[in-house]
Amino acid sequence: MARATKDAVHHPVFARFYARLSVSAEPRVGPVRDELLAGLSGRVIEIGAGNGLNFAHFPTTVAEVVAIEPEASLRRFALESALRAEVPVDVVPGAAEALPVKSEAFDAAVVSLVLCSVRDVRRSLSEVRRVLRPGGELRFFEHGRGGGRAMRTFQRALDRTVWPPLFGGCHVSRDPVATIRAAGFEIESVREFLVPETGPRLPSSYCVAGRARRPESDDGDGHGGDGDDDDDDDDDRTVS
Ligand SMILES: C[S@@+](CC[C@H](N)C(=O)[O-])C[C@H]1O[C@@H](n2cnc3c(N)ncnc32)[C@H](O)[C@@H]1O
């Protein structure tokens, strides 16, 4: 397997913040991770694995997880999580836009809270499609645009200003389901929910979890848009 030599993402302050926040959110988010990964088997690639909180939730029917993480600090946490996991996890540097793995090598791919942060959503999903075998499954848990008109306007304004620099390149106005569909996946199920479920709605509260599939008859010829109607498209389409 080829290894990336240079980190495509460098957010050390966000990485420390996320490592703490995500662990404290685990009582609420852990059940979503269980739902996300239930029933998976064979070889699985996880893209943007962060500090590796999904690892403990992979069922033992999974033979191997290749966990791609571009941010060095988060990758170190992920390596620790991998040691505690019940399934074999190989933590690998690399970015979603150029996955350092062979084509059609995986039975399933997992993205959780990642499509909001990648620089080029369309290219990332095209890569996911490339590395999945035809008929392979994409499991997703993402946040995106939601709420009423005022919230959506606010989300777009945040994406053009303070949100990405404050939160490690995250965007809140993307549309993950539309993006996945546009990338040529067949959507099999989607559940919409809020995180947190109660209390004030945050710009990042509007979540979806679901399953999609690379069509069996896929010739690997990607198409579609990036599902991102914010005005910072130049940034979204640039790969470092
Ligand atoms: C909010 S964290 C989510 C981490 C983890 N997936 C989870 O569910 O807790 C976003 C993750 O996306 C990663 N990321 C950002 N840009 C990326 C890219 N271009 N390719 C792959 N991962 C990326 C970040 O380094 C970070 O680990």
Condensed summary:
The protein is built from 8 helices and 7 strands. By secondary structure, the protein is of the alpha/beta class.
Task: Give your account of this protein's structure.
By secondary structure, this protein is α/β, with parallel strands linked by helices. It contains 8 helices and 7 strands; from the N terminus they run H-H-E-E-H-E-E-H-E-H-H-H-E-E-H. It has helices at 12-24, 26-37, 72-84, 121-131, 149-160, 163-166, 176-182, 233-236; strands at 42-47, 62-68, 89-92, 106-112, 132-143, 186-194, 206-213. A 7-stranded mixed β-sheet has the order 3-2-1-4-5-7-6, sandwiched between helices. Helix 1 runs parallel beside helix 3. It is globular, with a radius of gyration of 16 Å. The two termini are 21 Å apart. The model is unreliable at 1-5 and 222-240 (pLDDT under 50).
Key words describing this protein structure:
32% helix, 240 residues, disordered N terminus, 7-stranded mixed β-sheet, alpha/beta
Spatial strand sequence of the major β-sheet: 3-2-1-4-5-7-6
Q: Based on DSSP secondary structure assignment, what is the total number of beta strands?
A: 7
Mean pLDDT: 90
Bound molecules: S-adenosylmethionine
- Rounded to an integer, what's the Rg over CA atoms? 16 Å
Unreliable sequence segments: 1-5, 222-240
Backbone shape: globular
Strand content bin: 15-25%
Main structural class:
alpha/beta
Largest sheet: 7 strands, mixed
